[in-house]
TrEMBL record, chain A:
The chain crosses the membrane at residues 71-94, 101-121, 141-160, 198-221. This is Cobalt transporter subunit CbtA. InterPro entries: CbtA_put. Keywords: Membrane, Transmembrane, Transmembrane helix. Coiled coil: none annotated. The lineage of its organism: Bacteria, Pseudomonadati, Pseudomonadota, Gammaproteobacteria, Methylococcales. Pfam families: CbtA. Signal peptide: none annotated.
From TrEMBL, chain B:
It comes from Candidatus Methylobacter oryzae. The chain crosses the membrane at residues 24-44. InterPro entries: CbtB_put. Keywords: Membrane, Transmembrane, Transmembrane helix. This is CbtB-domain containing protein.
């Protein structure tokens, strides 16, 4: 039924892409993302010590700081990279023309806008220790935004009629008209400058991550059909 | 429910079945696998997975704890 060769080629390209992009992201994160996050954590821990009842989430296993923590972060980044590469690859698979790295970069840009930029406009990346609205509400808003943005961008790029392109633009804007869930009392254990520096760092790191995923997937995924 | 019958010649039927097994099914399977991985790395609430992926989730702007 399914052509096993076509599926295998896609998966192998995604595995290599995710591995390389995940390792690249892990390296880029060490420049600013992780140092800022660790600094914010010292504020968070200080706040927890002064307010012991809230320390429940720290009883579970967590990787030791240092090599072990970096190892698990790299594993998570690679897993995420393979997942995103499979999504981009499945679109490339549907297209009749084979991809190349330049087309891949465009898909990477689309992924960056869909999965990072759009949700970050309402829910900016947060350092640990910041107050936030209920997790389920934020996850719902995140999912709706990602779905709307992805669908809206595809309509803008590929729809044949003006009406459909317009509908795509509406979808892009819609999630930002209904406000992202905000905490009742906004606040953060870490100083504002640290939170801002974290946002800047993630904007850069995720751009590199997505462009690497798109470009590498376009390069590695050769359909010989 | 009656729909207008569309007669396809053998080449068209072959082309459609090729598109299904060479493109559509592999793409769907890969997309499902991809979503499962993104869910595991970014959303799954198991404490172990959350703590292992913690820094990655904050960095990727996933809603996290």
């Amino acid at each position: 039924m399914i052509n096993p060769t076509a599926f295998r080629e896609l998966v192998i390209a995604a595995l290599w892409t995710g591995l390389l992009a995940g390792l690249l992201l892990t390296a880029v994160q060490q420049i600013q993302v992780i140092p800022t996050l660790l600094q914010a954590e010292t504020y968070e821990e200080a706040a927890i010590v002064s307010n012991m009842e809230n320390s429940h989430e720290h009883h579970e296993w967590q990787p030791e700081n240092g090599l072990e923590r970096t190892f698990f972060t790299a594993a998570a980044n690679i897993g995420l990279g393979i997942g995103f590469a499979l999504l981009i690859g499945s679109i490339m698979c549907l297209k009749s023309r084979p991809a190349n790295w330049r087309i891949g970069l465009l898909w990477g840009l689309a992924g960056y806008l869909t999965f990072f930029v759009a949700p970050s406009l309402g829910l900016p990346p947060e350092v640990p220790g910041a107050t936030a609205a209920k997790l389920a509400d934020r996850q719902n808003w995140w999912l709706i935004t990602v779905f709307d943005t992805g669908f809206g961008l595809s309509l803008l790029a590929f729809a044949l009629t003006r009406t459909n392109k317009f509908f795509g633009a509406v979808l892009l804007v819609a999630p930002h008209l209904m406000d992202a869930p905000k905490p009742e009392v906004p606040g953060s254990a870490a100083p504002v400058e640290l939170a801002q520096s974290f946002i800047n760092a993630t904007v850069f790191a995720n751009a590199i991550f997505w462009l690497a995923i798109g470009g590498l997937m376009g390069r590695f995924y050769k359909k010989d059909l | 429910m009656s729909s207008t019958p569309v007669l396809l010649d053998n080449d068209q039927i072959q082309a459609r079945s090729d598109a299904l097994k060479d493109r559509i099914l592999p793409a769907m399977l890969a997309a499902m696998l991809g979503l499962a991985l993104v869910y595991g790395a970014g959303f799954a609430e198991t404490a172990q997975l959350h703590n292992a992926a913690h820094d990655g989730r904050h960095s990727a702007s996933f809603p996290c704890h």
